[in-house]
Amino acid sequence: MISIIGIGNGASAVAEKFSKTPQYNVYMLNDKVSRTSKYKFKLKRFEEPEEYEENPPDLTKFFSTVDDHVQVFIVGSSYSSNYSLTVLEQLKGKKIDIFYIKPDITLLTGIPKLMENVAYGVLQEYTRSGVFNSITLLSNMNIEDALGEVPIKSYFDRLNSSIFSTAHYLNYFAHTEPEVGVMARPAEINRIRSVAMLNMKNLEEKWLFDLDTPRDLCYYLCINNERLAKEGTLHKHIVDQLKEKPRNAFRKISYAIYETEHLDFGFCVAHTNVVQENS
User: Fold this and answer.
1) Nearest CA to 184 among 220, 144, 222, 138?
2) How far is the C-alpha of 156 from the C-alpha of 49, rounded, in Å?
3) Please, are residues 192 and 272 in contact by the beta-carbon 8 Å criterion?
4) Which of 90, 145, 239, 270 pairs as cysteine with 214 (C-beta 3.0–4.6 A)?
5) 102 pairs with which residues across the strands?
6) How would you classify the pairing of strands 265-272 and 217-224?
7) pLDDT tens digits, residue range 81-129?
8) Does domain 2-173 have CATH number 1.10.620.20?
């Protein structure tokens, strides 16, 4: 089991997407909760960032049933992101993967922009130093571009569903043997990562965050079971496409092919040790 934790209203909306999948225990912390219960914690809301640091929530009892593997979702511009470090501190001893959802910073001003700058930089630095197992950077702007047309009324629901699907399949790949392929383990120092959706015709990447200086690139390809059974040159075709990808001593490529009953789809995960600038 993996515990999913959403800190803030936006991140809780993402976390809630995992609640219908039995492999997860979902914990939501935000100020819209009417009262604290087993899986929901009511956070206090303040006007100034300093007040969040001065009034940390005691989550000892709330986190008493949290699994050893934890995935924490944070939206950078959320006021509740000020609670991030104090919440993460109370998960000490757990394997912590952070999913950081970056808003469109070009329209941010004042306190939200300041909060985003701090959370974005500090969480990467902590992860790079090994305090957290990994941080996956996701951009709302990039996700919207990857999805294409997204109606306003379903905007955040569509983006949240995409984030859920991406994180869920990464967990699936980590716990499932592929049909063929060997997925290389990224260097331990490369704890900062991003994800791309793949065009399965040419393996073109649509990055959900534009990662600077990617190192290890891992391609996860889900191919329809009928194609896997009948197409004798499929494996060679995929390998030839991957050989065309830029590679060097630091930029390594590995892949794994999985069976699916659905139409073909895939992801690429890029890892790096370089802290990303806020630009």
Assistant:
1) 220
2) 25
3) yes
4) 270
5) 139
6) antiparallel
7) 888 999 999 999 999 999 999 987 777 677 777 778 888 889 999 999 9
8) no
**With the C-alpha atoms ordered 110, 126, 124, 176, is the resulting torsion angle positive or negative?**
negative
179 touches 251 (CB < 8 A): no
Give the whole-angstrom CA distance, residue 227 versus residue 254: 21
* C-alpha atoms less than 13 angstroms from C-alpha of 157 in its C-beta half-sphere: 4
Give CA–CA dist 22/187, Å, rounded: 31
CATH 3.30.1330 in the chain, residue ranges? 191-272
From residue 22, give the alpha-carbon distance in Å to each of 69, 168, 213. 15, 12, 36
Residue written as token pair 């935000």: 30
| Tokens 């905007």 sit on residue | 155
What would the two tokens of residue 75 be? Answer: 């939206």
What's the topology of domain 191-272?
60s Ribosomal Protein L30; Chain: A; (3.30.1330)
- Distance from C-alpha of 85 to C-alpha of 208, rounded to nearest angstrom: 24
Three-class DSSP category at 174: helix
